[in-house]
Amino acid sequence: MSQQPVALITGAGRRFGFELAKSLLAEGYLVFAHYNSSRDGVAELEEQGAIGVQADLTSRAAVQALVEKVQTQTQRLDLLVNNASCFFTNEVVDDDPAALAAVFEVHVQAPYLLIKGLQPQLEKTGSAVVINITDIYTDSPSTDYIAYCAAKAGLANLTQSFAKALAPKIRVNGIQPGPILFLPEHDSEHRQKVLAETPLHVEGGLQPMLQAVRFLRDNPFVTGEFIKVDGGRALLI
Fold first, then answer.
1. Domain extents in the chain
2. What span, in angstroms and rounded, lies between the C-alpha atoms of 175 and 101?
3. Strand (E) or helix (H) holding 156
4. What's the 3-state SS for 78-147?
5. pLDDT at position 1 over 80
6. Quick one: how far is CA 60 from the chain centroid?
7. CA–CA separation, 113 vs 166, rounded Å?
């Protein structure tokens, strides 16, 4: 079995997933970079040696096909990061049953299937780590995004359940991001309001998230835990 470490990152085409994939490639990982519809960032990652893998995480069959594709190309998996997300308001999920289903399929069903399906590859290393990206609203839900918050809470519970079930061979932890990187559609008023409600008063950027991944990956005595990377925002919501 090759000694090169292997990682699978869902939602690797943009933002945090993209930067994490680049960071791991620079460390010498073989990276499976998952994407759904947009290949922009993944094409760049492939130029750096990543293997792009497409899958619609709302489809159980597509997730299974993703598992099988990874299994055909590696006997081991050192790091699985369930990062892919979809984010809808109450109004959207109330009007669109597919959007409501997608929230739970992407945040709960897909991570469950990936962890279960890739368990043999994770166990091969003896020290593999799963990191699930949840949300600070897991503990204090927003009334504007009820389904999203409930799904992220489900992912948090799944994290702790797998941490118990898969120990000692596999460690499972979570990261709860806050205002890391605003979206292009966030106007100045929104940004100022969010930062005013964040004790450190700054947009975090992606480096603190990468540092949290490294800590959870490298500390061998941490499992079933969550790290808030939010500038203290969870204290005020």
1. 6-235
2. 23
3. helix 146-166
4. CEEEECCCCCCCHHHHHHCHHHHHHHHHHHHHHHHHHHHHCHHHHHHHCCEEEEEECCHHHCCCCCCCHH
5. no
6. 18
7. 14
Q: Concatenate the DSSP letters of all residues of 178-224 into one string.
A: -SSS--TT--HHHHHHHHHTSTT-S---SHHHHHHHHHHHH-TT--S
- Of the candidates 136, 58, 157, which has an alpha carbon nearest to the alpha carbon of residue 98? 58
What's the whole-model pTM score? 0.96
- The Cα 175–Cα 48 span in angstroms is 26
Cis peptide before 199 (omega within 30 of 0): no
Give me the residues paired with residue 229 across strands. Answer: 177
Pseudo-torsion of CA 92, 96, 100, 101, nearest 10°? -150
Residue 8, SS3 per DSSP: strand
Which tokens in the block code for residue 193?
């309001």
The span from the CA of 34 to the CA of 180, in Å, is: 21
CA distance 67 to 115: 9
For the stretch 166-178, pLDDT in tens is: 999 999 999 999 9
So which residues are the catalytic ones?
Answer: 148
59: CB partners within 8 A, 6+ apart:
105
Length of the chain as a residue count:
237
Asked if pLDDT for residue 38 goes beyond 80, the answer is no
* CATH hierarchy code of domain 6-235: 3.40.50.720
The letter for the amino acid at 97 is P
Cβ-proximal residues to 227 (8 Å cutoff; 6+ apart), any chain: 173, 174, 175, 176, 212, 215, 216
Instruction: State both tokens at 104.
Output: 């739970």
Q: What is the SS3 assignment for 3? A: coil
